[in-house]
Amino acid sequence: MTEPLHSSAAPLVGVVMGSDSDWRVMSDASQSLSDFGIPHEVEVVSAHRTPDKLMQYAREARGRGIRVIIAGAGGAAHLPGMLASMTALPVIGVPVPLAYLDGMDSLLSIVQMPAGIPVATVSIGGARNAGILAARILGTSDEDLADRVEAYALDLEAQVEEKNERLKG
Ligand code: RP5
């Protein structure tokens, strides 16, 4: 893994969540972006508590240089879909599990977007994969970053083999 870019670099990814209580899950997205050296910003934007902020964020993100939005929310999780409806940027949705229903409510709210407004939904609590998917998207126009994503996958492969060797004694 490379070192994170200097924090003053203009953010390429917006990591947004419906509540600060989602950070326990969404910090994994921020961590994986940092691991790949991708400058990003973190913001609480609630679809139902701060609807004006939601609209402003979605409409201004692309003009500010954001290339991908990762949005996490729990319960009746309309944040990712609402963001996607107001921006042409790719939106990755993270279903955040709450106390009830094991996150199935969040998953179904995010994944079942009607045709026309896509949200790329990761697994329940899958914020780490959201960060990696954002890296892969940005890697389509950044060879160095794509190389780092490939190196990461190779490292995962090597870890499996190491564990295999240990199992065999
Ligand atoms: C959703 O409501 C948030 O995304 C969060 O997952 C959930 C609960 O929010 P808090 O009551 O913890 O602020 O909008």
From TrEMBL:
Pfam families: AIRC (PF00731). Keywords: Isomerase, Purine biosynthesis. Belongs to the AIR carboxylase family. Class I subfamily. It comes from the Bacteria. It is an enzyme of class 5 (isomerase). It catalyses: 5-carboxyamino-1-(5-phospho-D-ribosyl)imidazole + H(+) = 5-amino-1-(5-phospho-D-ribosyl)imidazole-4-carboxylate. GO terms for molecular function: 5-(carboxyamino)imidazole ribonucleotide mutase activity. Catalyzes the conversion of N5-carboxyaminoimidazole ribonucleotide (N5-CAIR) to 4-carboxy-5-aminoimidazole ribonucleotide (CAIR). This is N5-carboxyaminoimidazole ribonucleotide mutase. Its EC number is 5.4.99.18. Residues 11-160 form the PurE domain. Substrate binds at residues 19, 22, 49. PANTHER family: PHOSPHORIBOSYLAMINOIMIDAZOLE CARBOXYLASE, PHOSPHORIBOSYLAMINOIMIDAZOLE CARBOXYLASE CATALYTIC SUBUNIT. SUPFAM superfamilies: N5-CAIR mutase (phosphoribosylaminoimidazole carboxylase, PurE). Pathway: Purine metabolism; IMP biosynthesis via de novo pathway; 5-amino-1-(5-phospho-D-ribosyl)imidazole-4-carboxylate from 5-amino-1-(5-phospho-D-ribosyl)imidazole (N5-CAIR route): step 2/2. Coiled coil: none annotated.
